[in-house]
């Protein structure tokens, strides 16, 4: 999936007013995901995305929120995830969650299924609730 197509899909799904907010939302979600998942997974995800988007995953996978290098995932819950996405996207937490769900839905279509399975496995259940419903229910029940 190309950069413009991906951003356009995020804009449509999240019902954002323009490409700028969709770009900011995508950057915020990818950056926050890269902090939450193992760096190897973030780099594998980056390899399947357009370079303009991959850079956000790669940059964040190399350092944590406080700037320290890390190779494993930071441990944080949905509230922290929403707060970080909201701060980065310049929105409130409710909008951040809606936008994150849209970005994750687009990622589900853009990334290889096994990579999305790895992402699902790497996320705690509360953040996993943002994944497309079919994928989120794969690991429940």
Task: Give a verbal description of the structure.
The chain has 141 residues and is mainly α. The protein is built from 9 helices and no strands. The chain has helices at residues 3-14, 19-36, 39-47, 51-61, 78-89, 93-110, 113-122, 125-128, 133-136. Helix 2 (19-36) crosses helix 6.
In N-to-C order, the SSE pattern is HHHHHHHHH
Mean pLDDT: 90
Q: What is the C-alpha radius of gyration, as a whole number of Å?
A: 14 Å
- Shape, principal axes of CA atoms: globular
Number of beta-strand segments: 0
Give me the number of helical elements.
9
Percent of residues in beta strands: under 5%
Fraction of residues in H or I helices: 55-70%
Biggest sheet features: none
Oligomeric state of the chains in view: single chain
Can you give me a brief rundown of this structure?
This protein is an all-alpha fold and 141 residues long. 70% of the residues lie in helices and 0% in strands. It has nine helices and no strands.
Question: How are the SSEs placed, and which strands pair?
Answer:
Elements (H helix, E strand, L loop, with lengths): L2 H12 L4 H18 L2 H9 L3 H11 L16 H12 L3 H18 L2 H10 L2 H4 L4 H4 L5
Identify the notable features of this structure and list them briefly:
141 residues, mainly alpha, 0% strand
């Amino acid at each position: 999936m190309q950069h413009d197509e991906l951003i356009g899909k995020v804009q449509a799904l999240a019902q954002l007013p323009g490409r700028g907010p969709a770009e900011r939302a995508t950057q915020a979600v990818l950056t926050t995901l890269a902090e939450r998942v193992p760096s190897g997974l973030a780099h594998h995800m980056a390899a399947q995305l357009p370079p303009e988007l991959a850079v956000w995953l790669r940059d964040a996978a190399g350092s944590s929120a406080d700037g320290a290098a890390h190779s494993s995932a930071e441990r944080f819950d949905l509230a922290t995830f929403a707060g970080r996405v909201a701060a980065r996207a310049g929105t409130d937490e409710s909008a951040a969650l809606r936008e994150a769900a849209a970005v994750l839905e687009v990622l589900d279509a853009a990334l290889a299924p096994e990579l999305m399975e790895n992402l699902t496995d790497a996320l705690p259940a509360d953040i996993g609730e943002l994944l497309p419903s079919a994928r989120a229910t794969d690991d429940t029940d």
